[in-house]
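Because discrete structure vocabularies remain unfamiliar, it helps to consider an illustrative case, giving the amino acid sequence and backbone structure tokens:
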Amino acid sequence: MRDTAQDGVAAKRPGSAAATPGLTEGASAPSYLSVAGLTKRFGAATVVADVAFEVAASEFLCVLGPSGCGKTTLLRLIAGFERADGGSIRQAGIDITHLPPEARDYGIVFQSYALFPNRTVGGNLAFGLEAVGAPRATREAKVAELLTLVGLQAHAHKYPNQLSGGQQQRVALARALALSPGLLLLDEPLSALDANVRAHLRDELRALQKRVGVTAMMVTHDQVEALSIADRIIVMNGGRIEQIGTPSEVYERPDTLFVAKFLADMNTLPIARADGTVVEAAGLTWVLERPQGQLPANPQLCIRPAAVLVGEAARGAPNGFAARVAHVDFLGDLVRLTLQPDANARTTLVADVLRASLSIRPRTGDMVHACLPPRHVLVLGGDV
């Protein structure tokens, strides 16, 4: 018999009549999901290394990182598909580290949907309810509720191959919620969809999670997806957590150069020295908003392209400089300018400027005023 959790439906709920008693005993704990010192090795390779974090009830947490960083293995450890080599996982105050998947309280949605092709939409939604022996009237009422929840009332009698990718993903999501799990796990749930459908379904997923109130943890490699949907983001690299914070925190105040560059484009200039609020980088002098303490390893002066001011807004501003436009890229609403500071033509900085803010679009070879606003300038260390 197939493991129901592997099929994307909710696993049995600890604390329910069909599973381990006492889940609600830890309801007064400060977090709903608590991971401490979690470690997983495959042979000599450590793919999850001493990972620790907490998730509050009803929070939407995204685990973000490049391929091979350990994020999917982390999700599989929480689901019980992999055995931890160290550390612990507690859900609602109960240690679930060594429980099998079917004894854990979660629903899961996979990138591949994992729908039963021989069952209708309604049949897919009823599967978990049938597995726990819910009466027919209860199943029918719950299926109707779920169909309404995801807007598929008119598709109840269709089979998965008669649905679009977005509709199939809605079915997978509704099925994961069928047993009202305490935790919703999402493994790259939108990556198989095209960009427009993905953006629309992302908004739907966020709204649905808040409406249902389920605690959610989603793995993704898509930065925009994580920034737009999460309450908090975990950024992973090499099996370890680089930073945990709100979307604005990890984007605007990254802890490391890896986090900064993984989330979005970043200008970097190697720092030669720093003295209080004055930094020398790439042969130029820049002012910081706050005094710089001890420099990190391989220190870099960093600023996002969208924070670089160009034109009249930069004239007379702190960290202003004259620059030659080395290249112009038209990106729709944005114009990307590659700038060479007149004082150091070997250095380049990229500026993303709103097209509507430009009275005249600069051309290659033009001289322009530019500045790096001190409040957007960061000093970060690590590999470039």
Observations:
- The chain is about 20% helix and 35% strand.
